[in-house]
From TrEMBL:
Keywords from the named record: DNA-binding, Transcription, Transcription regulation
Molecular function via GO: DNA binding
Protein name: Transcriptional activator protein Anr
All residue ranges annotated as the Cyclic nucleotide-binding domain in the record: 48-101
Keyword Cell membrane on entry: no
Keyword Protein biosynthesis: no
Protein origin, superkingdom: Bacteria
Organism: Polaromonas vacuolata
Amino acid sequence: MSLIQSEKLLFPHFSFFPNVSADVVLNAFRVDSKFINKESQHPQEVLLKQRKLKSGESLFNSGDKLDCIYIVKSGTFKTLISIPDGRFQIVGFHMSGELLGLSGIANRLHVGSCVALEKSVAYELPWQFTDISTRSSLISLDNICRLLSLQIINDYKLMLLLGVMNSEERLIIFLLNLSERLLFNGFSASDINLSMSRAEIGEYLGIKVVNVSRIFGVLTKRGLIEVSGRRVRIIDITKLFEAAYSEVE
C-alpha cells in the first residue's frame, strides 16, 4: 500500500499531502508579459527575487508589514506564533513548493514568524503583483482562492492530528507526511533527514521531548524505522501506516 493509497482511506475528499514542487507553484501563476524579461529563459526567476537564508535566520517576523508572500524553493522553514507571556508555538514546517505568509493577508501584517531550519531559499512574490483588481495581477483570483482553501484544509488536518490522535499516532503521521513531501519533490520517500530538533517536533505535535525520543525507540524496536541522529529511515511504510490507523479498513 502506498502513502497516497493509504491517505485515501482516511481523507477521500482531499489529499493529506497536497504538496508540489516550487516550479509547479510558479507555473500556476498567470504572468503578465510586462513582467517578463525577454532575454531570460527563466522569466519567473528574473521576476521573483530570491531570499537566501542561513539556519536560524528569519524570513519575516510577527508584526512585519506584508510586502511579500513567499514560495519555498529549497530547504526547510518553521512558522511560529508568540503568546503574551513570551513563549512561542511552532505551527508548521514548510518545504519546497509551499507558500509562506498567507496568514498576513487579512491585516497586511504577518501574524507569526518564519525561520529557516537549514540553508534555505525562498522566492519573494510582491503583494502588489497579486492585486486582483487589475488585469496585470500575477496570480488569478481562482489561484488565490485555491491557496486560501488549502490553508483551511491544512488547519483542519492539524486540528485532527492534535485533537484525536495519541502521541505515537501523531509522530507516525508526522513522519509519513515528511516522507510524502520528499517523494513529491523527487527525493527518496524512505530516507528522511530531519532539519528540526526533537524538541521542535515535540512542540509542534504537543508531545514532551522525552516522549518523542521514546516513541522513536519503540518504532525502531518494532522494526518500522531506523534512527541515526536526525536521519530516519522508514523500513516498512505500509506497516508504519497501519501502526497509526489499525482500525481503518
